[in-house]
Known about the structure:
The chain is globular. It folds into 2 domains: 9-73, Orthogonal Bundle (DNA polymerase, domain 1); 81-218, 3-Layer(aba) Sandwich (Rossmann fold), CATH 3.40.50.1000. It contains 10 helices and 5 strands. Strands 3-4-5 form a 3-stranded parallel β-sheet. Strands 1-2 form a two-stranded parallel ribbon. Strand 3, helix 8 (158-166) and strand 4 form a beta-alpha-beta unit. It is mainly alpha-helical.
Amino acid sequence: MDGTLVDTEPYWIRAEHELVAAHGGHWSHEKALQLVGKPLLASAEVLRGAGVDLPAADIVDRLLERVTSEVRMRVPWQPGARELLASLADAGVPCALVTMSYTVLAEEVVSRGPDGAFATLVTGDQVTRGKPDPEPYLVAAERLGVDPRRCVAIEDSPTGIASALAAGARTLGVEAVVAVPYLAGLSRASSLTQVDVGTMARIASGEVLDLTARREDVA
């Protein structure tokens, strides 16, 4: 969700900066990027190490409250995200939202997206082991009633990509705030505007696509 469908990473980074500063600690953009895609409790422990004198669960609550309040004012959809979700729903493709954000934030985002986009939500507060462990994607496939090897996962972070690949899903990496690695079997795109139902079908069939090349590079 964060980074892939909605450009909320700046919200998270701003919330982290504010919280660390309020406790007299030091935070940097580089440190914030290291938390992208990680479970919230793991991120909270890093923030504790940066000087936030609160229990990890309280840190998560503070961050969620701040980011959720911003989402309620404006959902920063990534280019092509709403269109892709709507076209998948129209085509009858069952989708699951798999995010390390908690249910309270995920529901806010989904409620402001296309109707019927998701059959289920798997959130960070619903799993025992978060990304990069495969559990979140395995849970999603189980809820959808499908083999994870027949699924296509779309991710933006190395942590999320590792989780999806470990679950056996065909995976598409779309770069947002951190670089998408070059990995065997990983499809790549620069933006969701390059992705449609046909693209997803090709990846599901086993093709590995690299859509990051500019048109003049492949002419």
